[in-house]
TrEMBL record:
Its EC number is 5.4.2.10. One of its GO terms (cellular component) is cytosol. Keywords: Isomerase, Magnesium, Metal-binding, Phosphoprotein. This is Phosphoglucosamine mutase. SUPFAM superfamilies: Phosphoglucomutase, first 3 domains. Its cofactor is Mg(2+). Pfam families: PGM_PMM_I, PGM_PMM_III. Residues 3-127, 250-328 form the Alpha-D-phosphohexomutase alpha/beta/alpha domain. The keyword Transmembrane does not apply. GO terms for biological process: carbohydrate metabolic process; peptidoglycan biosynthetic process; UDP-N-acetylglucosamine biosynthetic process.
Amino acid sequence: MKKLFGTDGIRGVINEELTPELAMKLGNAIGRYYLGKYNRFIIAKDTRNSGDLIESAMAAGAASAGMNVEFAGVIPTPALAYITKKENTLGAVISASHNPAVYNGIKVLAKGMKISDEDEVEIENLIIDNPYHYTVFSGVGKIRQVDHYRDEYIDYVVGLYKREKLPSKGIVVDGANGAISTVISMVYESLGIKADLRGIKPNGININDGCGSLFPEYLGNSLDQGQIGVLFDGDADRCLFVLPGSRLIDGDMLMALNSIKMVSQGRLKGNRVVATVMSNLGFEKYLTSRNLVLDRTKVGDKYVLERMLKTGGVLGGEQSGHIIFLDRSS
């Protein structure tokens, strides 16, 4: 049974539950466990003021085990998923998702996916049974900053949608003062989308502070008719919509809408959508009425993705706004 990893990595109050010591132990265990399988470890983070602290500790631990480390800077979790898949390597995102800045966390990814439960157990066992093991001096890993990963992700997203007919007005974005703030202006400008961008001025403390996916009223109460709000969380791996009057469009609704569009495009393989046991019964009835199947799995976007890979599904997600279009990215 796992003791450190939850459904979305390791998470806790900074310097109380998630300490530099734990981050260094984790980095060292990751380096030992994956050394030889992957040639480098890419670390990304959101905008929390504790990100530098945890990043440095993890990097020291991994390099001391012989793993080369790259700092990708502040980028969304989907950006790191794209990069680790493209580069066929290992990574971690330092983020506590929708939680305020007093929390931080660590999600470990390999080739675009969160690592398996089995790998998490093995890494925990290394931390508990043998917290540190250092390589000889000649095998110490190198640590370097890599700035081009963000631009690669922006280019990828723009390339996906540059031929699509996209709305040029009426969009209001809440960036939660998080990681989306480093990419959204450039993506929207490249696609010709003129949006009112809010919550994109992080200061290290204001991430998810009365804004973001948990606070739809922050935008919803100020929207005019004809406008739509787009809500992100701290690391931008979930997205919800909100309409005037703070009417929330959750992940189930977004998957329902996208399922019909993907059928019309010939993209919805097997006429199947993967969601969790938490998804609304109304969502299932909606799909059934359109001869589509809802395939449920346990809570956690990693389990949704595992189920999609097993069944060949291309659309899946959670009510909270984690949505996966597997023919586009993981």
